[in-house]
Write a structure and sequence with these properties.
Layout lengths: L3 E3 L2 H4 L3 E2 L13 E3 L5 H4 L5 E5 L6 E6 L29 E5 L7 E6 L5 E2 L4 E2 L9 H29 L4 E7 L8 E8 L2 H5 L3 H9 L3 H9 L4 H15 L1
Antiparallel strand pairs: 1-7, 2-8, 2-9, 3-5, 4-5, 6-7, 10-11
């Protein structure tokens, strides 16, 4: 459950936020949205693919952290043991929200039901005089940076779509606990055929936009699928 409300000094003067590497709140999210800027880094740990939002039909990149709906293989326990994590993991319990539908102004919100919120421990969000603490200023700047990166990611994803670079694909995996192969659909990739058939003009355009390394990292990240298969086999074995 979440109780997300605007953050105000009047209501949250004594509110603190605890730092934690417990990301079990993502335990049921097998795919996690990422931003373009982190694809190269994350590609050494997770398969990075694109999906289409069913409502907006916009594309966005995601890190595959599980092979089955509802199971994030990295977040089943409070102990985080992977070397890399998506930037979005750092946001909670704070978030940004538009002040109103007709404005670009944003306000900071807080999830009052988060276990990271406390009145007895953690980092204070406000000084006793009601001013933003240095901690809150740092977190607010991080949220604004993340919002800017999310906008950039949306624009780049749209560009890749317009250039017909994203093709629907199906991953087929074999798990030890399953008699038949599992087919994973609904994902989009920049495939070999697309890359091989690119015009020189498009290659130059992608290079100038700095997107070639991102595309190559996205494609190389698919080599991390066996890592997910191994983790899924381990998870299934523990459930018996």
């Amino acid at each position: 459950m979440t109780q997300i409300v605007p953050l105000t000094s009047n209501k949250h003067l004594k509110t603190n936020v605890k730092e934690s590497t417990d990301y079990s709140r993502f335990s049921t999210e097998h795919i996690v949205p990422v931003v373009i800027r982190e694809i190269i880094t994350l590609s050494s740990e997770y398969p990075i693919v694109f999906i289409k939002n069913a409502k907006t039909e916009e594309f966005m990149p995601v890190a595959m952290m599980g092979l089955k709906n509802g199971i994030n293989l990295y977040c089943q326990t409070p102990q985080w043991d992977a070397p890399l994590k998506p930037l979005g993991f750092n946001n909670a319990p704070l978030s940004l929200m538009k002040a109103n539908e007709n404005s670009d102004d944003v306000m900071i919100c807080i999830d009052e039901d988060s276990n990271l919120v406390s009145e007895t421990e953690g980092n204070p969000l406000f000084t006793l005089s009601g001013e933003q603490s240095e901690y809150l200023k740092q977190r607010a700047n991080a949220l604004l940076d993340m919002a800017a990166m999310t906008q950039q990611t949306s624009a780049i994803s749209k560009y890749l779509e317009e250039k017909n670079l994203l093709s629907p694909q199906q991953l087929t995996v074999k798990l030890a606990s399953e008699e038949n192969n599992i087919n994973i659909g609904g994902i989009y990739m920049v495939n070999d055929e697309t890359v091989n058939n690119m015009s020189n003009e498009l290659l130059i355009e992608l290079k100038e936009k700095g997107l070639l390394p991102v595309i190559y990292a996205h494609r190389a990240s698919l080599h991390q699928v066996p890592r997910l298969i191994a983790k899924q086999n381990q998870y299934d074995a523990k459930q018996k």
